[in-house]
């Protein structure tokens, strides 16, 4: 019985994590820790964003969304522009 309960709990946690959406943004103009802070702050304001990771060296920003939420393209572009950067590309990452 304990094994069955553990299995059910494990699968429910795993399925919730698997449904999160992740995106990789290529952003021009990221050069310093202040840039990292600024883009992180702007993207974190978007409803549903749970995590923002910035790679200054490669100009990449990984954004993770809550389960069932998608990254709103218009708001994302506007927030990046407002932060003083240029969005070069967006790639939805496969969580599988």
TrEMBL record:
GO function term, MF aspect, one: metal ion binding
All copies of domain HMA, residue ranges: 21-88
InterPro entries named among the record's database cross-references: HMA_dom, HMA_dom_sf
Protein's UniProt name: HMA domain-containing protein
Organism annotation: hydrothermal vent metagenome
């Amino acid at each position: 019985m304990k094994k069955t309960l553990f299995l059910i709990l494990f699968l429910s946690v795993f399925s919730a994590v698997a449904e999160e959406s992740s995106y990789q943004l290529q952003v021009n103009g990221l050069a310093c820790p202040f840039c990292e802070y600024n883009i992180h702050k702007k993207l974190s304001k978007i409803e549903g964003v749970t995590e923002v990771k910035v790679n200054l060296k490669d100009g990449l920003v990984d954004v993770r969304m809550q389960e069932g939420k998608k990254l709103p393209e218009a708001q994302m572009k506007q927030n990046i522009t407002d932060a003083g950067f240029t969005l070069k590309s967006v790639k939805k990452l496969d969580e599988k």
